[in-house]
Amino acid sequence: MKLKLIFLTIFLASVQLTFAQVKFEAKVSKKKLGVNERLRVDFEMNQDGDNFTPPSFSGFTVVGGPNQSISNSWINGKRSYAKTFSYFLEPTKRGRFTIKQATIEIKGQVYKTLPVTVNVTGAVDKPKDGNNTDFVASENLHLVAEVSKANPYLNEAITVVYKLYVSPRISVSNWRELDSPTYSDFWSQAIDMKQLKIENGEYNGEPYRFVVLRKTVLYPQKTGKLNIEPLTLTVSVDVPTKRRDIFGGRLYSTVNKTVAAGNRTINVKSLPEQGKPDDFSGAVGSFDFKVTTTKTELDATESLDAKVLVSGNGNLKLFDLPKLSVPTGLEQYEPEHNERVRTNLSGMGGNISDNYTLVPQYKGKYPIPSISFSYFDLKTESYKRITSDEIVINVKTGPDGGDAVASSTPSSAGKKAVTQTGSQFRFLKSNANLQLIQRSHFFKSTGFWMSLTAPLLAIPLFLFFGKKREERLNDVSGNRVRKADKLARKYLSEAKKNLGDQKEFYIAMERALHNYLKAKLNIQTSDMSKDRIQRLLKEQEVEDTVMIEFVALLESCEFARYTPSSTSAMQQDYDKASRVIAALDKQL
């Protein structure tokens, strides 16, 4: 009987301890949300506590809270208690974020919540706001992406224009980009917006004001349905309220509103297979094609330049030029590729060219055969071919053999009949006058003892240099400096070669600075505006002084190309660029 009583007492005590167990949990309103939605986080406990410490909420901005609520009830004689701290968060960018542990002190013990992982995706079309965003702001503020063509061909230019529409009922005081589209399936080029201009227009039949925030030219690189990601902004909106001041004027309330342009889908058509030339390299647009030479008459060993040029409007940077074919008697060097292309709302326009240097070796006439260039014409929706004229190079003076080498069959070029004469082998001597070489014994010679002892003497040297190498590898700070200096010299090597040539030097240095950013920050040259560079470097926590020096160097490159500059000034800019790249690399 006593044994049963003991077991019953232990069972009731364990049940009481179970019900008295402290619970402290973190709960989120959703684990997957768009970058233009808000997240509610509740830290809930079943017993009263003190010294509550929230996490840092990395990746989010706190837009509301902490709000505290307490629930205390009795049901069937059993007490139920809950205390909650609530926060409302707004994502700062896309990605996977962890809400870290919060702490609370209950009855002298410290309790922690478990970490919660939240996945933030691109903006959703109809954001569900967990903090009741002002309805007036939602209904009177719209970000729209206008696409010029929804059904383009592969490599046909389309334009995306982002417009922010604002109703006269509200006003906007400020905005900033929260999330930018990446255009992963497109070649993209942003059009420089020098000044934002407010214009009057209509949205859904109602009068609105709007401003064009961004213009981007896209060339689709895949066929099928492609998604254009939305641009997302956070906007400070001044909304009128029902309250008035003492003079009868209406009072306004400022609301931070997140707006997105919405996903846009285009259907990219493949180029027709019917009539496609065998040598088609992907050119789409309207083009002219020609092959020219700087001269057609010259002497042997003199040089001339041959240019293969394509001009017009289309995807000029996205296809290869046809290769120049020359007779074997003309020595041909690797071509220099040049691009003079501008991009506007209609797409790319200008010209691209390959410049070949040719050097004839013999006298004679050398025909450069005609070559063809084919492209897809968007106006007629058909393929077109342009063929260049044959060019004959006349080499007036030089060694004989040019006519043979200029033959169109290189395998037979330059062949001559071989004739035998009596003096044909006169350079061979019939009397060799050979002399006996005295034999020497290597064993126990000076060379023998040196070969034997040299490895033993080298052991201390190996130990010394090995220790120095280990010290150098353990010098983390020094290695970082040396690596940064090596990287700076690598990117600026071309600029150093052009010291003294002002134009080429600053072009090479600007290219080096851009290539360095492309390698470090994974951005395209088309996206390298000064504002974007500053923002990206700031996000990487680069020191303000280094960031300002880097941008100043870019401005100096643009300015110095058109103003006189001395060699000493170029040397100073080179040293400054080397120092800034090294400093950036250590911080990045």
UniProtKB/TrEMBL annotation:
The chain crosses the membrane at residues 447-465. It comes from the Bacteria. This is BatD protein. Keywords: Membrane, Signal, Transmembrane, Transmembrane helix. Pfam families: BatD. It comes from Aquimarina aggregata. InterPro entries: BatD (IPR025738). Residues 1-20 form the signal peptide. The lineage of its organism: Bacteria, Pseudomonadati, Bacteroidota, Flavobacteriia, Flavobacteriales.
